[in-house]
Amino acid sequence: MAVTTSERAAPSQRNDPLLTVAQAGDYLGTGERFIRRLIAQRRITYVKLGKYVRLQRSTLDAFIEAGRITSEE
Questions:
Q1: What is the dihedral of CA 24, 65, 43, 35, to 10 degrees?
Q2: Cα 31 from Cα 46, distance rounded (Å)
Q3: Going by DSSP bridges, is the β-strand pair 18-19/47-49 parallel, antiparallel, or unpaired?
Q4: Is the pLDDT score of 11 beyond 70?
């Protein structure tokens, strides 16, 4: 019985879908241009699948957390 690539992936990666640039922009509430700028400036990690660029949702969440400014009480 052959094992598929998705079965070899770690359980955490199964719940971490790869998003297109447009989907990543929607997820962050920005446009595609901002996401492409982040990629070009190497400010965010991305995955190349042939000619396609994809971003993991966990990477976008980490980017959000890195930019979070807490309030002072």
A1: 20
A2: 17
A3: unpaired
A4: no
